[in-house]
Amino acid sequence: VNNMAAAASGMGSRPVQRIQDEVLHVNEVFSRLFDHRPFLRGEIEFFKKEFEEKRGDREVEQLFRSLELITEIKEGQIEKIVNSSDDNLPRTIADVQVALHMCEDTLDTESKFNCEELLAKKRAERSARLTAVQQDVQEKLRLLQDSYQEKEQSLRAQFQQLEKSAGYI
């Protein structure tokens, strides 16, 4: 009986060991397939290194160029701008004032004209033209109807004469 128990216990440890080995193997496969942290860490470090190498000292160089330009403007250009504005500003102000007066004159001239009166006059002219056109159309229509009636009477008389000569009447 003891041999059987020992054999059973020995047999029982082997399958358990196999299951544990399989579980470890499955965990390792799962980790390799779905745990991307080491790969991503390496890729991030590579990207960071490449970015820093390519970028270099561009920002610092651009800051120095900006500083040089600002210093250059401060030393030489500001005085030129002040002198130029002192020379040209009075003339520019005078030109703007002339333009302002011209605009005011235009507005005054426009306000002198009574828009309502002008509109009423134009409406009356259009109404008179419309009446004249309507009368002309009526006259032409009347002449056309008269011509049509004359032609109708002429054709009736001609057909009656044909019927008489043919002996139908």
From TrEMBL:
Domain of life according to the entry: Eukaryota
Keyword line = Coiled coil
| Keyword Cell wall biogenesis/degradation carried by entry | no
Q: Where is the signal peptide?
A: none
Q: Does the keyword Coiled coil apply?
A: yes
This entry carries the following GO cellular component terms, namely: BLOC-1 complex; transport vesicle
Q: Which residues form a coiled coil?
A: 134-165
What PANTHER family does this protein map onto?
Answer: BIOGENESIS OF LYSOSOME-RELATED ORGANELLES COMPLEX 1 SUBUNIT 5 (PTHR31784)
The record's similarity note reads: Belongs to the BLOC1S5 family.
Q: What is this protein called?
A: Biogenesis of lysosome-related organelles complex 1 subunit 5
Species of the source: Cherax quadricarinatus
